[in-house]
Design goal:
alpha+beta; 3 strands; 23% helix
Amino acid sequence: MSGSGSDCVELACVEHAVLLRDSKDRQGHQIRVNRSEFRRFLAHIKEGAHDL
């Protein structure tokens, strides 16, 4: 959840993948990434590579 409460993303772990979607648009599209890609993305966030 974001600090403002309006820009939230939901995650769901499924076999071999992570699903992401906009929490305000539950009927909208989902993004599916494999778990290793998602772990790499999180590592970049922790390193400060993304301005979030």
